[in-house]
Every structure is written in structure tokens, then in C-alpha cells.
Amino acid sequence: MRKIFNNGPVLVESEAGMVALGRKIAATLNGGEVLGLVGDLGAGKTHLVQGILEGLGASAPAASPTFSLVHEHTDGRLAAAHFDFYRMKSPEEAFGMGWDEYLAGGNVLLVEWADRFDGMLMPQDTHWLVLRHVSATERTVSLAG
Prior knowledge:
Elements: E1 10-12, H1 15-27, E2 34-38, H2 45-56, E3 70-73, E4 80-84, H3 91-96, H4 99-104, E5 108-112, E6 126-133, E7 139-144
Helix pairs in contact: 1-2
């Protein structure tokens, strides 16, 4: 994944471009990675996840897990779990859903609004993807240290 971002932020010009970037990211994954997605509402987090899931070969499209908190995608090249911390009130909610088991399970974990409870994501094991608005249609995506 570092190779994708080795020259700094990637400029994405459309929703389709965000999905395409997600597919490129998926090609770099081996299983067990935690991707913490950070950005304002409408920054493209769910579109990026959609591309990652497509790149992993998941048959179900990504849907914002805002109302169910986690969606599992187990039929692709790698199993993935898509979390949304936006509506969680505390880290205990995630632990009650089996967060520890997901971390230990070798799944690719895709966590929207990861900065809400960033202490749950071990810095040495998390790839932080920061999405920022540039214009009405353009975004940048960067890999934070």
C-alpha cells in the first residue's frame, strides 16, 4: 500500500476514481490488515471501501454500516469486516460486537470514522487513510504515518 502513496496524497476526481483507488489498495492486502478511514461526511470513505471490497472479490457491495455497525464480507480473496464507529457511543460497544475476535481473526478490517476510538486500533498495525475534500467532486487520500 505504501507504494500507492509514496509520492504523497492521491488526488481523486470522482466517486468512480475513489472506487478505482480502493481496488488498487485491495491488491496490496494480504489479510489481517486494519485500515482506519478518517474524513468528514461525504469525503468518500464508503466509496473507497466499495473499491477495496470489489478488489478483494466480495460479491456484496459495500453499504455504509452506519445502522448495523458492521458488515462481514467473507466470499472474496480475503475475508473483510466493514465497521462504522460513527454511531458508537463507546469502545465497549465494539468490544461487545467481538472486536477482539475480528482483530485476531486475520480479516481485513475496514473502519470508517476510526478516529472516534483510535485507541482501539493499534498504531503499529493500522494503516490510516485520511480523506479530505478539495472541491465539490475532488478528494485527496493520504496514508498517515
